[in-house]
What we know:
Largest sheet: none
Amino acid sequence: MTAQSPGTAAPSVRPSPSPAPATLAGASVVIAGRVLRQFVRNRMMIIVTLAFPLLQLFMLLAAFDVLVRDTQDVDYVRRLAPLIVLTTAFSSVLTTAIALWSDIRSGVFNRLRAMPLDMRAYVLGRIGGDFVRIMGVAVLVTLIAHTVGFRFSRGPLAALGFFGIVALFGMMCSALAVAVALVAQHPGIIVRYVQMPTLVLTLMSSGYVPLEAFPDRIQPVVRVNPVSLAADALAGLSHQGALTAPVLGTAAWTLGVTAVCTAVATRRFAMLVKRG
């Protein structure tokens, strides 16, 4: 072994490079995959999102199909199935908001914040995963409704438009869920201010019964109800009925609610990121 001469500098030790920050798109995809895995593994979320709407479909068809057919000469499944598809998206607001609220308070959010990660990926991945889940459940419910008589009779483009309306409605629901989760102080507030309004909007819609069946004084409210507009648009795209007003109304509700919820969520999310 040769001794190092006094004039020779010791070799410098290079620090190990820090991990490169994950790209926004890549991190969003990973978080979206986590959201989907949570849904598949959570029995209660599956019951609320899928099993309960399907139970509604079969029970209401058994109870009212013959009555509606005899009194209005309408195949009830053509009116009911679109509403049930929307119900699967609407019911996701509560489960998504509670899951997001739990992530923020359980330490998951803090662990992600300590990583070389653009925190916008968390929100984008959350919304993206929920959107994929909403669309997947909508397709599955539509296929099941097909077994009891639901049909697309206006061609493939109208069928694509059908799921386009579901996508718009699902986008609105996802934005609403994120905003509610970021604002709520505890899960009870989420249940109180999400479950009851969504139930009222669903019951006071033209999905279960035609608009003319409601008292005259509340028909204007039912007519502009976002659930009524979306259900009418789906019924028109799948079978027959007006299209222009329901489609434009659904788009207007989606843009309006999404814009408001995005503004609220952006502000609250920035406060959460800075707090740590």
